[in-house]
Structure formats: C-alpha cells, structure tokens
Amino acid sequence: MPNILILGGDGYLGWPTAMRFSSLGWDVTIADNYFRRHACDKLDTGMLYTVPNMISRAKVWYELTGKEIKVSVCDLADPEAMRGLFDGRVEYDFAVKKGFAGPPDTVLHYAEQPSAPYSQMNYRTANFTVTNNLLTTNNLMYAVRDLSPSSHIVKLGTMGEYGTPNIDIEEGWLEVEHKGRKDTFLFPRQAGSIYHTTKVMDTDLLWFGVRMWGLKVTDLMQGPVYGLETEETAIDPRLATIFNYDEIFGTILNRFVVQAVSGYPLTVYGKGGQTRGYLNIKDTLQCVTMAADSPPESGRLDIYNQIMETFSVNQLAEKVQKAGNARGHQVEIKQIQNPRIEKEDHYYNPTYQGLIELGVKPHYLTDTVLDGLFAVVESFKSNIRKDVIFRGVKW
C-alpha cells in the first residue's frame, strides 16, 4: 500500500485530497496546525457552515468507509515536528492502527498560509507568511534529504508566481538564447503579493534541493479553485470541506456566488480585465493524484500549470450574474476602486497541457456546474454575513 503524507490536511483542498487518496487505497497521514481556522476566528471572517476538526472528520471517515486517515496536529514550521513525521517520533492525535506508518512514498505540500490579502494586511501578517511558508518548505526539504530521500515531493505552487508577463507563460521553464548560447531556466517570475513571493521562494528552495541533493519534486502551479463538492464530501455532510466567502480567504468564484445569493453586489476590482486560470476542486484532486502516480526521477523538477480554462473577472461576474438571475436572484455587478496594485488589462496566455497529457479530464465552468454551486450556497443562505464579504485590504 503506497504511503502519502499530506501537509495542510485540514484545508479547503487538503481534506478532500486526503479522502481521495484514502479511497484509492493509499495509507494516508495528514498534519495541520489549524492556522486557517484560528485566523478566521481572530479576524471574524465568514465560513458558510461549521466544519468539524480533523480528528472528528477522520473518525467519521473511518466509521463510514472503514478506511483510516491518521491525524497529527502540529506546527510544521518546527523542524522537529516535521522530522517526527518521517522518523517515527510523531504522536498521532487520531490513528486506528497503532505504530508509525513509515516514511512517506509521497509528500503533498499544502501547508502554507494561502491568502494573498492576509499576507498584505500589515507587517505582522507578512512576517508570518514569510516565516511559516519558507520554514515549512525548508523543513520538508531537509527531512526528505536526511530521512527519506526516495520520497516524491508534490508541492502546490501558484500561477501567481508568474504574474502577467507580456509573453506566453510556459510550464515552468523557458529556453533562453543569449549571445549565441542557449540554456533552460525557470520561467521568470514576478509575484504580486508577499504570499505569491513566498511561493516563488518555495520553488527556488526545492529547485536547489533537486540540483544539489537529487530530490524528486513536482511543482503544481495552480490557479484559483472553485467548488464545494467532491465524490467523497458528498458521502456525509460532516465530511464537507472548509468554505470561505470573505475577501481574505475566499476564492473569487466562490465569493461571487455567495454575494449573488445574499444580494450583495459582485465586487469587480477596477476595470475587471484581470485574467487568470481557474479549475474545479474536482480537477485539483485529479491533478494531485495524477502527479503522485507520475514521480520524476531523482534530480528532476517537473512543473505543471494546474488550470483548465481562463477567464477575466468581468467574464466570471457575467457568468454568475446570468446563473443567479436565472435562479431568481437580482444580481448586480459593481466596479469598485481596485484595492490592489495590479494590471487590469493585460496579455495572458499560459500553456497548460501537461496534466491533461497525464490523463486529467477537465470539468469546465458550465451553466450546470454554476447551478449546482448556487444550489449548495442557497441552502446555507441564512449563515451568510454581508459585513465580512469585503473589507478593502489594500496593497
């Protein structure tokens, strides 16, 4: 049975990923320090519904499926906590089978402060983002080098590392010819927030580990994710994943649907021409499982652009308005002063064929998909707090 360690296993993507690998027969361990939950409580942000903690959800999963997901509540920025997950010193907070699961064949790294707005709130949140994200990645890299050099690291990166260059975005690499000589380099990156800058540094750290120590790493440059339901979360409401709709932790399409249901105007920043690549949460699960099943050789860094289609903010708003109006909502689109420093009208043409070539079958943003998302959000309409939707974090 292959063994996977999922860092950040309590999160929006981490928990559904844990259930997916468990359902596929992997031996799964998850670790998380509950940062996102604590930050949401401290900032008084909105979650659409209450989500049980990791231990409770792992118990429900075991009761319903007979499959175990081991749980460790720990701070992965602490090197000893990280190393304990590799050398057997870990103390599980939930485990059916006693004893160490063994060094992981695959490590899936979600364990970072994931919000660009949070990283830009003030110097304290910026400092936390830098220290947490980089120390966690560095601790992982050294733990693999020292304790499990055959482990395959799958790191969740972000398309935001690239920024919006005026050239086509390749999948991670760019061949450069200069003064008659050629070489291949990591694609130039120009991050637009402290969070995205830490993700650039993650890539650089892991590229160092690949070159110097022969690590094997897959870096998934993911765009914004939308959606709520996967095959596993649909089994029981207690297995649902975290769903934020606030400006700080909510992703744009999820936010727009909540705004539409609650009668809050869709917040389009500036001109609304900002274009990004998007994917359904179901495709995130496809991508990470395909990546885990296709490890590179030692000493190689594989990079995939993890998106399925591109939209401008205006296009997303128009889609949500159309779907919402068809369901009886009176959806207003409102352009507001952009709180961010970013291009609002730009060229954007990323390459994203690698994962499809591995076998991923995309779920596109159809009217049917939007209708399903609206239906779920509508069922929790009474929980929506308009006061947390937009606070105007500026940078």
Describe this structure in words.
The chain has helices at 14-23, 35-43, 54-65, 79-87, 116-119, 123-147, 194-213, 252-262, 281-292, 313-326, 354-358, 367-379; strands at residues 3-7, 27-32, 69-73, 106-109, 152-158, 173-178, 181-186, 216-222, 225-226, 266-269, 275-280, 300-306, 309-312, 333-336. With 395 residues, it is of the alpha/beta class. The protein has one domain (3-388): 3-Layer(aba) Sandwich (Rossmann fold). The strands form 4 sheets. A 7-stranded parallel β-sheet has the order 3-2-1-4-5-8-12, with helices on both faces. Helix 1 crosses helix 9 and helix 8 crosses helix 12. The longest helix is centred in the middle third of the chain and has 25 residues, at 123-147. The protein is globular, with a radius of gyration of 20 Å.
- The mean pLDDT is 97
Shape: globular
* N- to C-terminal distance: 47 Å
- In DSSP terms, counting alpha (H) and pi (I) runs of 4 or more, how many helices? 12
CATH topology: Rossmann fold
